[in-house]
């Protein structure tokens, strides 16, 4: 299972045509969209995404763009975080789709239809925005300790972005949302970047 992606054989032409793939977790999350005409969806076969699966998908894409739409439960969101790293290593531009109704992809398509799902795809957010939102929600940022914890979560990801302009912009946003000094955020970001692993494509 860890070497193949479910429905890739059916999805590869549509992925090429549309220029991006949608990655979901389970069989039904993949089957139902396909039945409704959304043909660029693949699934990780019920397993955690593997490096082999990511490399396999990369072979079918000239410009590797992907939307990750895992289930909204805690396990799905943990899997989203794990997938981001692997996808970035292979050079993917990674966006995250969060369904506002907290439905799984197949549930959303059943309830609202393919056109509504396609409209929802226009609301995806770059992976770094997803990480920032998730980290700020996970900590009590009204307290100094919560702000520190959130910054410690986020800065390693910011430090690995190749795009220096985008990195600086997100640092500005982070300072504004945490209501702390921009200079402090930039200083911590510089310190984190000095010790970081190699920068990653994808943003």
Describe this structure in words.
With 203 residues, the protein is α/β, with parallel strands linked by helices. 57% of the residues lie in helices and 8% in strands. The protein is built from ten helices and five strands, in the order H-E-H-E-H-E-H-E-H-H-E-H-H-H-H. The chain has helices at residues 8-18, 27-35, 51-58, 74-89, 105-112, 114-120, 127-138, 144-159, 164-178, 182-194; strands spanning 21-24, 41-43, 65-68, 93-96, 125-126. Strands 2-1-3-4-5 form a five-stranded mixed β-sheet, with helices on both faces. Helix 4 (74-89) links the parallel strand 3 (65-68) and strand 4 (93-96). The chain is globular and about 50 Å long. The model has no long low-confidence stretch (mean pLDDT 91).
Strand order of the largest sheet: 2-1-3-4-5
Per DSSP E runs of 2 or more residues, the count of β-strands stands at 5
Percent of residues in helices comes to 55-70%
Number of helices: 10
- Could you give a short account of the major beta sheet? 5 strands, mixed
Low-confidence stretches: none
Helix-strand category: alpha/beta
Strand percentage lies at 5-15%
Order of helices and strands: HEHEHEHEHHEHHHH
The separation of the N and C termini measures 29 Å
Overall body shape = globular
Radius of gyration: 18 Å
Overall pLDDT confidence = 91
